[in-house]
Design brief:
single chain; 291 residues; alpha/beta; Rossmann fold; 5-stranded parallel sheet; 9 strands; 44% helix; SGNH/GDSL hydrolase family protein
Length: 291
């Protein structure tokens, strides 16, 4: 029995040490790359200066054509992340400030994402390699479910988020294989889908007095950043478009551009503009705020 217990203890110790080694190795790889995503791009940079930074979900990532801002002499980058919520947008801004970014204007897409204060599991997972490297990230996540296990158990965060930051992503990062996330100054253009569903129903959505939107407002005010908050277009055949009126009533400072582009030919799906629509929309925003 004694020998059996010693054997079990040895297995546990060896397994623990292996997990520690794997955790260190994976993290070291992620700390070396800057070309596979927007989070790593910020984590591994500092002292950048921008006239315009875009934050938000896919409705920011696909709707603001940052090269058009640059054509007007405005240094810009689109840090919108598909699938992201205001939870992640707030954290991205905190990271930029932690890395001494100097930003004059932030365009924040705040419309459908005001309806929840949850983290996006897929996007939030991409911050996990840096959990021990950034106090900002650790503090932002400390109230989320499962934080202690991810923070204190070696390699656990890589196991539970394997699809996002597991072996495949680590391997491609080690080989410095680029993605298209940073192309077009962060803007991701969508094509026109001939059979796209141009109907949507957002009747059940309700805007909240959102904690993370309030954080972004506070951070911008404290750091002398001009914050421009916008609602972006939806297709005409959407049920519950009065949601945008509810947002305006709750937050009067948010500009409603829901109907700035209306024809279906400018949409890739009901909630996302295609490249032609995004260019039409960006042209309006530049004229209204940066002319």
């Amino acid at each position: 029995m004694k020998h059996f217990l010693i054997f079990i203890i040895k297995i546990v110790v060896v397994t623990f040490l292996l997990l520690v080694v794997l955790d260190i190795a994976y993290t070291k790889v992620y700390l070396q790359y800057t070309n596979r995503g927007k989070i790593g791009h910020v984590i591994n940079s500092k002292d950048k200066q921008y006239d315009v930074v875009v934050l938000g979900s896919s409705r920011a990532n696909n709707h603001f054509v940052t090269p058009m801002f640059e054509a007007q002499g405005l240094k810009a980058f689109n840090y919108g992340m598909s699938g992201g919520h205001l939870f992640e947008a707030s954290l991205m801004l905190k990271l930029m400030l932690e890395h001494n970014y100097k930003i004059k204007n932030i365009i924040l897409e705040a419309d459908l994402n005001l309806s929840n204060e949850k983290e996006s599991e897929t996007v939030a997972a991409r911050f996990m390699p840096y959990l021990h490297e950034s106090t900002v990230i650790a503090t932002h996540f400390e109230e989320q479910q499962g934080f202690n296990a991810k923070y204190y158990l070696p390699f656990y965060r890589y196991i539970v988020a394997d699809s996002q930051i597991g072996f495949r992503e680590m391997y491609q990062s080690a080989l410095k294989m680029p993605t298209n996330a940073l192309n077009n100054l962060g803007y991701y253009p969508l094509g026109k889908k001939p059979n796209a569903n141009m109907k949507n129903n957002i009747t059940n959505l309700k805007p909240l007095r959102n904690k993370y939107y309030e954080e972004i407002k506070h951070l911008c005010k404290a750091n002398d950043i001009n914050l421009i908050v916008l609602m972006t277009p939806m297709c005409e055949n959407t049920k519950g478009l009065n949601y945008f009126d509810k947002v305006k009533k709750l937050y009067p400072e948010i500009y409603n551009y829901e109907n700035a582009v209306i024809e279906d030919r400018y949409f890739s799906s009901c909630g996302h503009l295609n490249d032609a629509g995004a260019r039409q929309f960006t042209k309006v925003i530049i004229q209204d705020f940066f002319n």
